[in-house]
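Note to self: keep these together.
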Amino acid sequence: MYMKIAFAVSLTACLVGCATTESMSRVSSYRQTVIHVPMPDDTYRLYEHKSDDSLLVAPSMSKIVSIGMAQGATLGLADTMTPEQKLEAAAQQHLTNTGRGQCKITRGYMLQKPLFEFWFECPAPLPASKT
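Structure:
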């Protein structure tokens, strides 16, 4: 129950005010279990899609708060968003951590500040040899 509340609160905080119906629908299609991926610069929050080969990645809550504070203090002029490359690296690290290191990120885009969605493909398994 706590995880569902935390998921809803964190995503709502990220999306309030400027979320589109499409992005809200896409976000709700992800599993609600957060996966923490520690990286040298931050511990990213990651969600796996229920049926697609895609991942939703966001910076830590403390990073999101600092992004919001910096943008608020500068009236939106400061670009303090986490670079897409760092979010993609966290997604690739998660694939490696879960035994899918051979899978590759094929594309990614900002779903809604600061959430990025990354799609990945895995090589087809080799057919079993007949002996």
